[in-house]
Amino acid sequence: MKITIHGSGYVGLVTGACLADVGHDVVCVDVDQVKIARLKRGEVPIHEPGLEDLIRYNLGNERLRFTDDPQEGIEHGMLQFIAVGTPPDEDGSADLTHVLNVARTIGQHMTDYRVIVNKSTVPVGTADRVNQAISEVLEDREETLEFDVCSNPEFLKEGAAIEDFSRGARIVVGSESEHVQRLMRECYAPYSRQKDKLIFMDVRSAELTKYAANAMLATKISFINEIANLAESLGADIEHVRHGIGSDPRIGYHFIYPGCGYGGSCFPKDVKALARTADDAGTSATLLHAVEEVNEAQKSRLFDKLKRAMHGNLKGRTIAIWGLAFKPNTDDMREAPSRSLMERLWAEGARVQAYDPEATAECHRIYGERPDLFLSRQRDAALEGADALVICTEWKAFRSVDFDYIARTLNHPVIIDGRNLYSPEDVKRAGLDYYAIGRGDSLLPVGL
Protein backbone atom coordinates (compact mmCIF):
# COMPACT_ATOMS: atom_id res chain seq x y z
CA MET A 1 0.00 0.00 0.00
CA LYS A 2 1.36 3.48 -0.86
CA ILE A 3 1.41 5.75 2.18
CA THR A 4 2.64 9.31 2.75
CA ILE A 5 3.55 10.76 6.13
CA HIS A 6 3.67 14.55 6.49
CA GLY A 7 6.03 15.45 9.33
CA SER A 8 9.27 13.71 10.29
CA GLY A 9 9.21 14.36 14.00
CA TYR A 10 8.76 11.75 16.68
CA VAL A 11 5.31 10.46 15.64
CA GLY A 12 5.92 10.75 11.90
CA LEU A 13 9.21 8.86 11.96
CA VAL A 14 7.93 6.03 14.15
CA THR A 15 4.75 5.71 12.05
CA GLY A 16 6.62 5.79 8.74
CA ALA A 17 9.32 3.35 9.82
CA CYS A 18 6.87 0.85 11.35
CA LEU A 19 4.49 0.91 8.34
CA ALA A 20 7.43 0.45 5.96
CA ASP A 21 8.71 -2.43 8.07
CA VAL A 22 5.51 -4.45 7.48
CA GLY A 23 5.77 -4.00 3.72
CA HIS A 24 4.06 -0.73 2.87
CA ASP A 25 5.67 1.71 0.41
CA VAL A 26 6.16 4.85 2.55
CA VAL A 27 7.28 8.39 1.71
CA CYS A 28 7.93 10.84 4.57
CA VAL A 29 7.67 14.57 3.77
CA ASP A 30 9.17 17.39 5.82
CA VAL A 31 9.88 21.04 4.99
CA ASP A 32 13.14 20.94 6.99
CA GLN A 33 15.71 20.28 4.25
CA VAL A 34 18.58 19.71 6.70
CA LYS A 35 16.58 17.09 8.58
CA ILE A 36 15.57 15.36 5.34
CA ALA A 37 19.20 15.26 4.18
CA ARG A 38 20.22 13.61 7.45
CA LEU A 39 17.36 11.11 7.32
CA LYS A 40 18.31 10.11 3.77
CA ARG A 41 21.72 9.16 5.20
CA GLY A 42 20.03 7.14 7.95
CA GLU A 43 20.79 9.73 10.65
CA VAL A 44 17.89 10.01 13.10
CA PRO A 45 17.62 13.38 14.93
CA ILE A 46 15.88 11.95 18.03
CA HIS A 47 16.75 9.19 20.48
CA GLU A 48 14.21 6.37 20.39
CA PRO A 49 15.36 2.78 21.01
CA GLY A 50 15.39 0.75 17.80
CA LEU A 51 14.23 3.57 15.51
CA GLU A 52 17.52 4.27 13.76
CA ASP A 53 18.04 0.58 12.93
CA LEU A 54 14.45 0.32 11.63
CA ILE A 55 14.85 3.39 9.42
CA ARG A 56 18.20 2.26 8.01
CA TYR A 57 16.89 -1.23 7.30
CA ASN A 58 13.85 0.03 5.40
CA LEU A 59 15.85 2.71 3.57
CA GLY A 60 18.11 -0.09 2.38
CA ASN A 61 15.13 -2.13 1.21
CA GLU A 62 13.63 0.92 -0.56
CA ARG A 63 10.34 0.71 1.33
CA LEU A 64 10.99 4.04 3.04
CA ARG A 65 11.97 7.34 1.42
CA PHE A 66 12.31 10.93 2.59
CA THR A 67 11.61 14.09 0.62
CA ASP A 68 11.19 17.83 1.12
CA ASP A 69 8.96 17.98 -1.98
CA PRO A 70 5.31 17.89 -0.83
CA GLN A 71 4.04 17.33 -4.38
CA GLU A 72 6.04 14.09 -4.58
CA GLY A 73 4.48 12.91 -1.33
CA ILE A 74 0.94 13.87 -2.28
CA GLU A 75 1.20 12.11 -5.63
CA HIS A 76 2.54 8.99 -3.87
CA GLY A 77 0.13 7.88 -1.17
CA MET A 78 -3.58 7.08 -1.17
CA LEU A 79 -3.34 7.61 2.62
CA GLN A 80 -1.92 11.02 3.56
CA PHE A 81 -1.01 10.93 7.27
CA ILE A 82 -0.62 14.30 9.00
CA ALA A 83 1.87 13.87 11.85
CA VAL A 84 3.10 17.38 12.60
CA GLY A 85 3.43 19.18 15.91
CA THR A 86 0.56 20.90 17.72
CA PRO A 87 2.42 22.98 20.34
CA PRO A 88 0.41 24.70 23.08
CA ASP A 89 -0.68 28.23 22.32
CA GLU A 90 -0.44 30.93 24.99
CA ASP A 91 -3.94 30.08 26.30
CA GLY A 92 -3.16 26.33 26.53
CA SER A 93 -5.07 25.42 23.37
CA ALA A 94 -3.38 23.38 20.62
CA ASP A 95 -1.79 25.44 17.85
CA LEU A 96 -3.09 23.95 14.57
CA THR A 97 -0.95 26.09 12.26
CA HIS A 98 1.17 23.20 11.01
CA VAL A 99 -1.79 20.83 10.61
CA LEU A 100 -3.77 23.32 8.53
CA ASN A 101 -0.71 24.25 6.46
CA VAL A 102 -0.30 20.58 5.50
CA ALA A 103 -4.03 20.38 4.68
CA ARG A 104 -3.76 23.40 2.34
CA THR A 105 -0.66 21.92 0.71
CA ILE A 106 -2.53 18.68 0.05
CA GLY A 107 -5.34 20.71 -1.48
CA GLN A 108 -2.86 22.51 -3.74
CA HIS A 109 -1.24 19.38 -5.13
CA MET A 110 -3.80 16.56 -5.09
CA THR A 111 -5.00 15.40 -8.50
CA ASP A 112 -7.08 12.40 -7.44
CA TYR A 113 -9.03 11.01 -4.49
CA ARG A 114 -7.08 10.96 -1.23
CA VAL A 115 -7.75 10.01 2.39
CA ILE A 116 -6.26 12.48 4.88
CA VAL A 117 -5.48 10.79 8.19
CA ASN A 118 -5.01 13.04 11.23
CA LYS A 119 -2.29 11.40 13.35
CA SER A 120 -1.39 14.58 15.22
CA THR A 121 -2.98 15.14 18.61
CA VAL A 122 -5.67 17.67 17.78
CA PRO A 123 -8.75 19.07 19.52
CA VAL A 124 -12.25 17.94 18.71
CA GLY A 125 -13.47 19.50 15.48
CA THR A 126 -10.06 19.59 13.77
CA ALA A 127 -11.13 17.14 11.05
CA ASP A 128 -13.84 19.62 10.08
CA ARG A 129 -11.24 22.41 9.85
CA VAL A 130 -8.92 20.21 7.75
CA ASN A 131 -11.84 19.38 5.48
CA GLN A 132 -12.68 23.08 5.14
CA ALA A 133 -9.03 24.07 4.45
CA ILE A 134 -8.70 21.55 1.63
CA SER A 135 -12.12 22.44 0.18
CA GLU A 136 -11.24 26.14 0.06
CA VAL A 137 -8.00 25.47 -1.83
CA LEU A 138 -9.78 23.14 -4.28
CA GLU A 139 -12.44 25.81 -4.80
CA ASP A 140 -9.73 28.36 -5.61
CA ARG A 141 -8.31 25.84 -8.10
CA GLU A 142 -11.83 25.32 -9.50
CA GLU A 143 -11.41 21.58 -8.90
CA THR A 144 -14.08 19.18 -7.61
CA LEU A 145 -11.84 16.33 -6.43
CA GLU A 146 -13.22 13.98 -3.78
CA PHE A 147 -11.41 13.30 -0.51
CA ASP A 148 -12.09 12.05 3.02
CA VAL A 149 -10.67 13.10 6.38
CA CYS A 150 -10.41 10.66 9.28
CA SER A 151 -8.83 10.62 12.73
CA ASN A 152 -6.27 8.00 13.80
CA PRO A 153 -4.72 9.19 17.10
CA GLU A 154 -1.34 7.87 18.20
CA PHE A 155 -0.80 6.21 21.57
CA LEU A 156 3.00 6.09 21.64
CA LYS A 157 5.19 6.32 24.73
CA GLU A 158 8.60 7.86 24.22
CA GLY A 159 11.20 5.17 24.91
CA ALA A 160 8.82 2.37 23.88
CA ALA A 161 7.24 3.84 20.75
CA ILE A 162 8.06 1.02 18.32
CA GLU A 163 6.70 -1.57 20.74
CA ASP A 164 3.57 0.55 21.26
CA PHE A 165 3.01 0.94 17.52
CA SER A 166 3.60 -2.74 16.75
CA ARG A 167 1.91 -4.32 19.76
CA GLY A 168 -0.47 -1.61 20.95
CA ALA A 169 -3.73 -2.64 22.61
CA ARG A 170 -5.93 -0.80 20.10
CA ILE A 171 -5.98 1.17 16.86
CA VAL A 172 -8.62 3.90 16.97
CA VAL A 173 -10.01 5.22 13.69
CA GLY A 174 -12.57 7.99 13.48
CA SER A 175 -14.57 7.62 10.26
CA GLU A 176 -18.06 6.49 9.34
CA SER A 177 -17.13 5.94 5.69
CA GLU A 178 -17.04 2.24 4.76
CA HIS A 179 -14.48 3.02 2.04
CA VAL A 180 -12.13 4.74 4.52
CA GLN A 181 -12.59 1.94 7.03
CA ARG A 182 -11.64 -0.62 4.37
CA LEU A 183 -8.46 1.32 3.49
CA MET A 184 -7.48 1.69 7.14
CA ARG A 185 -8.05 -2.04 7.70
CA GLU A 186 -5.68 -2.71 4.80
CA CYS A 187 -3.10 -0.32 6.27
CA TYR A 188 -3.13 -1.91 9.72
CA ALA A 189 -3.82 -5.53 8.71
CA PRO A 190 -0.25 -6.66 9.61
CA TYR A 191 -0.86 -5.48 13.19
CA SER A 192 -4.25 -7.16 13.58
CA ARG A 193 -3.49 -10.71 12.48
CA GLN A 194 -3.94 -12.34 15.88
CA LYS A 195 -6.63 -10.01 17.18
CA ASP A 196 -8.72 -7.31 15.53
CA LYS A 197 -7.39 -4.19 17.24
CA LEU A 198 -9.25 -1.69 15.10
CA ILE A 199 -11.94 0.32 16.85
CA PHE A 200 -14.06 2.45 14.53
CA MET A 201 -16.07 5.41 15.75
CA ASP A 202 -17.12 8.86 14.57
CA VAL A 203 -14.38 11.42 14.01
CA ARG A 204 -15.11 13.63 17.01
CA SER A 205 -15.13 10.69 19.41
CA ALA A 206 -11.75 9.54 18.07
CA GLU A 207 -10.28 13.03 18.52
CA LEU A 208 -11.55 13.17 22.11
CA THR A 209 -10.33 9.61 22.88
CA LYS A 210 -6.67 10.64 22.57
CA TYR A 211 -7.01 13.56 24.97
CA ALA A 212 -9.15 11.57 27.39
CA ALA A 213 -6.58 8.73 27.50
CA ASN A 214 -3.66 11.03 28.30
CA ALA A 215 -5.69 13.05 30.80
CA MET A 216 -6.69 9.82 32.57
CA LEU A 217 -3.06 8.70 32.90
CA ALA A 218 -1.96 12.15 34.08
CA THR A 219 -4.76 12.07 36.64
CA LYS A 220 -3.47 8.76 38.05
CA ILE A 221 0.02 10.26 38.39
CA SER A 222 -1.18 13.40 40.16
CA PHE A 223 -3.43 11.32 42.40
CA ILE A 224 -0.66 9.02 43.61
CA ASN A 225 1.67 12.00 44.09
CA GLU A 226 -0.91 13.70 46.27
CA ILE A 227 -1.33 10.50 48.31
CA ALA A 228 2.49 10.22 48.57
CA ASN A 229 2.70 13.71 50.02
CA LEU A 230 -0.05 12.79 52.47
CA ALA A 231 1.82 9.58 53.38
CA GLU A 232 4.91 11.61 54.24
CA SER A 233 2.87 13.91 56.47
CA LEU A 234 1.27 10.93 58.24
CA GLY A 235 4.39 8.79 58.67
CA ALA A 236 3.19 6.14 56.19
CA ASP A 237 5.19 4.54 53.35
CA ILE A 238 3.70 5.22 49.90
CA GLU A 239 5.27 2.07 48.45
CA HIS A 240 3.22 -0.07 50.82
CA VAL A 241 0.13 1.96 49.94
CA ARG A 242 0.87 1.59 46.20
CA HIS A 243 1.03 -2.19 46.51
CA GLY A 244 -2.11 -2.16 48.63
CA ILE A 245 -4.19 -0.33 46.03
CA GLY A 246 -2.47 -1.61 42.88
CA SER A 247 -3.31 -5.21 43.74
CA ASP A 248 -6.97 -4.30 43.25
CA PRO A 249 -7.65 -5.20 39.59
CA ARG A 250 -10.06 -2.29 39.35
CA ILE A 251 -7.09 0.05 39.95
CA GLY A 252 -4.00 -1.86 38.75
CA TYR A 253 -0.34 -0.90 39.03
CA HIS A 254 0.06 1.14 35.88
CA PHE A 255 0.77 4.86 36.33
CA ILE A 256 0.58 4.84 40.13
CA TYR A 257 4.31 5.29 40.71
CA PRO A 258 4.91 8.39 42.84
CA GLY A 259 7.56 10.81 41.65
CA CYS A 260 8.56 14.38 40.99
CA GLY A 261 5.85 15.05 38.40
CA TYR A 262 5.15 14.22 34.78
CA GLY A 263 6.73 16.03 31.84
CA GLY A 264 7.43 15.44 28.16
CA SER A 265 5.62 16.46 25.03
CA CYS A 266 2.21 14.88 25.69
CA PHE A 267 0.74 14.93 29.20
CA PRO A 268 1.35 18.62 30.07
CA LYS A 269 0.24 19.83 26.64
CA ASP A 270 -2.77 17.52 26.34
CA VAL A 271 -4.14 18.17 29.83
CA LYS A 272 -3.96 21.93 29.22
CA ALA A 273 -5.53 21.61 25.77
CA LEU A 274 -8.38 19.43 27.03
CA ALA A 275 -9.05 21.83 29.89
CA ARG A 276 -9.11 24.69 27.40
CA THR A 277 -11.51 22.75 25.17
CA ALA A 278 -13.80 22.14 28.15
CA ASP A 279 -13.71 25.82 29.08
CA ASP A 280 -14.54 26.82 25.49
CA ALA A 281 -17.42 24.34 25.49
CA GLY A 282 -18.80 25.85 28.70
CA THR A 283 -18.16 22.64 30.65
CA SER A 284 -16.47 22.68 34.04
CA ALA A 285 -12.96 21.16 33.94
CA THR A 286 -12.29 21.31 37.68
CA LEU A 287 -10.50 17.95 37.81
CA LEU A 288 -8.25 18.69 34.82
CA HIS A 289 -7.15 22.02 36.27
CA ALA A 290 -6.43 20.28 39.60
CA VAL A 291 -4.34 17.58 37.87
CA GLU A 292 -2.19 20.29 36.30
CA GLU A 293 -1.93 22.26 39.54
CA VAL A 294 -0.83 19.18 41.53
CA ASN A 295 1.78 18.35 38.91
CA GLU A 296 3.30 21.82 38.91
CA ALA A 297 3.53 21.75 42.69
CA GLN A 298 5.11 18.30 42.59
CA LYS A 299 7.94 19.53 40.39
CA SER A 300 8.92 21.90 43.21
CA ARG A 301 9.14 19.22 45.87
CA LEU A 302 12.70 18.11 45.07
CA PHE A 303 13.96 21.68 45.44
CA ASP A 304 11.96 22.22 48.63
CA LYS A 305 13.25 18.98 50.17
CA LEU A 306 16.83 19.77 49.20
CA LYS A 307 16.69 23.27 50.62
CA ARG A 308 15.33 22.01 53.93
CA ALA A 309 17.93 19.22 54.03
CA MET A 310 20.68 21.82 53.46
CA HIS A 311 19.28 23.96 56.30
CA GLY A 312 17.88 26.60 53.96
CA ASN A 313 21.20 27.59 52.41
CA LEU A 314 21.97 26.56 48.83
CA LYS A 315 24.13 29.51 47.81
CA GLY A 316 27.58 28.32 46.81
CA ARG A 317 26.57 24.63 47.07
CA THR A 318 27.28 22.10 44.34
CA ILE A 319 24.40 19.71 43.67
CA ALA A 320 24.75 16.45 41.72
CA ILE A 321 21.74 15.55 39.57
CA TRP A 322 21.20 12.09 38.09
CA GLY A 323 18.73 12.17 35.20
CA LEU A 324 17.78 15.12 33.00
CA ALA A 325 15.27 13.58 30.56
CA PHE A 326 11.62 13.59 31.65
CA LYS A 327 11.67 9.77 31.59
CA PRO A 328 14.16 6.96 30.78
CA ASN A 329 15.03 5.86 27.22
CA THR A 330 14.63 9.31 25.70
CA ASP A 331 16.64 12.51 25.44
CA ASP A 332 13.47 14.64 25.66
CA MET A 333 13.70 17.37 28.33
CA ARG A 334 10.48 19.18 27.51
CA GLU A 335 8.71 20.07 30.80
CA ALA A 336 11.14 17.76 32.63
CA PRO A 337 11.24 18.10 36.44
CA SER A 338 15.04 18.40 36.18
CA ARG A 339 14.63 21.75 34.44
CA SER A 340 12.50 23.19 37.24
CA LEU A 341 15.06 21.97 39.76
CA MET A 342 18.14 23.30 37.94
CA GLU A 343 16.62 26.70 37.26
CA ARG A 344 15.66 27.16 40.91
CA LEU A 345 19.11 26.02 42.06
CA TRP A 346 20.77 28.55 39.79
CA ALA A 347 18.45 31.26 41.07
CA GLU A 348 19.66 30.41 44.60
CA GLY A 349 23.32 30.65 43.58
CA ALA A 350 24.01 26.89 43.52
CA ARG A 351 26.08 25.00 40.96
CA VAL A 352 24.85 21.84 39.16
CA GLN A 353 26.82 18.74 38.19
CA ALA A 354 24.50 16.59 36.08
CA TYR A 355 24.62 13.20 34.40
CA ASP A 356 22.13 11.62 31.99
CA PRO A 357 22.82 8.65 29.68
CA GLU A 358 21.16 10.31 26.67
CA ALA A 359 20.09 13.90 27.36
CA THR A 360 23.47 15.61 27.78
CA ALA A 361 23.46 17.09 24.27
CA GLU A 362 19.85 18.24 24.67
CA CYS A 363 20.68 19.92 28.00
CA HIS A 364 23.62 21.70 26.36
CA ARG A 365 21.35 22.78 23.50
CA ILE A 366 18.84 24.27 25.95
CA TYR A 367 21.19 25.95 28.43
CA GLY A 368 24.48 26.29 26.53
CA GLU A 369 27.80 26.84 28.28
CA ARG A 370 27.46 28.37 31.74
CA PRO A 371 29.80 28.38 34.75
CA ASP A 372 27.20 26.92 37.12
CA LEU A 373 26.52 23.81 34.98
CA PHE A 374 28.85 20.85 34.49
CA LEU A 375 27.59 17.96 32.34
CA SER A 376 29.37 14.80 33.38
CA ARG A 377 30.05 11.92 31.00
CA GLN A 378 30.05 9.44 33.90
CA ARG A 379 27.45 8.78 36.56
CA ASP A 380 29.78 8.68 39.55
CA ALA A 381 31.94 11.57 38.32
CA ALA A 382 28.94 13.84 38.82
CA LEU A 383 29.21 13.13 42.58
CA GLU A 384 32.78 14.32 43.01
CA GLY A 385 32.89 17.53 45.04
CA ALA A 386 29.09 17.67 45.29
CA ASP A 387 27.25 18.54 48.48
CA ALA A 388 24.17 16.35 47.80
CA LEU A 389 22.63 14.07 45.17
CA VAL A 390 19.18 14.52 43.60
CA ILE A 391 17.66 11.85 41.31
CA CYS A 392 15.18 13.09 38.69
CA THR A 393 14.92 10.19 36.21
CA GLU A 394 14.63 6.45 36.85
CA TRP A 395 17.28 5.23 34.38
CA LYS A 396 18.33 1.59 34.90
CA ALA A 397 21.92 2.77 35.42
CA PHE A 398 20.84 4.40 38.70
CA ARG A 399 19.14 1.36 40.21
CA SER A 400 22.21 -0.47 41.49
CA VAL A 401 24.71 1.78 43.27
CA ASP A 402 27.37 1.61 46.00
CA PHE A 403 25.84 3.62 48.85
CA ASP A 404 29.08 3.50 50.83
CA TYR A 405 30.87 5.15 47.90
CA ILE A 406 28.18 7.83 47.66
CA ALA A 407 28.44 8.48 51.42
CA ARG A 408 32.22 8.83 51.17
CA THR A 409 32.10 11.08 48.09
CA LEU A 410 29.38 13.62 48.91
CA ASN A 411 30.29 16.52 51.18
CA HIS A 412 26.98 16.01 52.99
CA PRO A 413 25.30 12.59 53.28
CA VAL A 414 22.07 13.57 51.51
CA ILE A 415 20.13 11.84 48.70
CA ILE A 416 16.87 13.36 47.43
CA ASP A 417 15.22 10.61 45.36
CA GLY A 418 12.46 11.84 43.04
CA ARG A 419 11.75 8.33 41.73
CA ASN A 420 11.81 6.11 44.86
CA LEU A 421 14.54 3.86 43.46
CA TYR A 422 15.95 2.48 46.70
CA SER A 423 15.05 0.78 49.93
CA PRO A 424 15.31 3.42 52.69
CA GLU A 425 16.91 0.85 54.99
CA ASP A 426 19.70 0.09 52.48
CA VAL A 427 20.49 3.76 51.98
CA LYS A 428 20.43 4.65 55.65
CA ARG A 429 22.68 1.70 56.50
CA ALA A 430 25.47 3.57 54.67
CA GLY A 431 24.93 6.61 56.87
CA LEU A 432 23.06 8.64 54.26
CA ASP A 433 19.97 10.74 54.82
CA TYR A 434 17.37 9.56 52.30
CA TYR A 435 14.45 11.77 51.31
CA ALA A 436 12.20 10.16 48.69
CA ILE A 437 8.60 10.77 47.58
CA GLY A 438 6.26 9.62 50.37
CA ARG A 439 8.88 7.41 52.03
CA GLY A 440 12.29 7.50 53.66
CA ASP A 441 13.26 10.33 56.00
CA SER A 442 10.79 13.15 56.30
CA LEU A 443 11.51 16.84 56.59
CA LEU A 444 7.94 17.51 57.64
CA PRO A 445 6.38 17.18 61.10
CA VAL A 446 4.28 14.01 61.22
CA GLY A 447 0.62 14.92 61.74
CA LEU A 448 -2.18 13.27 63.70
UniProtKB/TrEMBL annotation:
Q: Which Pfam families match?
A: UDPG_MGDP_dh, UDPG_MGDP_dh_C, UDPG_MGDP_dh_N
One GO molecular function term?
NAD binding
Q: Which organism is it from?
A: Halomonas huangheensis
**What InterPro entries does the entry give?**
6-PGluconate_DH-like_C_sf, NAD(P)-bd_dom_sf, UDP-Glc/GDP-Man, UDP-Glc/GDP-Man_DH_C, UDP-Glc/GDP-Man_DH_C_sf, UDP-Glc/GDP-Man_DH_dimer, UDP-Glc/GDP-Man_DH_N, UDPglc_DH_bac
The record's comment on protein family reads: Belongs to the UDP-glucose/GDP-mannose dehydrogenase family.
Q: Where is the UDP-glucose/GDP-mannose dehydrogenase C-terminal domain?
A: 320-424
Its recorded name reads: UDP-glucose 6-dehydrogenase
Q: What does this protein do?
A: Catalyzes the conversion of UDP-glucose into UDP-glucuronate, one of the precursors of teichuronic acid.
Q: Where is the active site?
A: 266 (nucleophile)
Cite the PANTHER family for this sequence: UDP-GLUCOSE 6-DEHYDROGENASE TUAD
> Which keywords does this Swiss-Prot/TrEMBL entry list?
NAD, Oxidoreductase
Oxidoreductase recorded as keyword: yes
Residues reported to bind substrate: 155-158, 210, 255-259, 263, 327
Organismal lineage: Bacteria, Pseudomonadati, Pseudomonadota, Gammaproteobacteria, Oceanospirillales
Q: What EC number is given for this enzyme?
A: 1.1.1.22
Write out the catalysed reaction.
UDP-alpha-D-glucose + 2 NAD(+) + H2O = UDP-alpha-D-glucuronate + 2 NADH + 3 H(+)
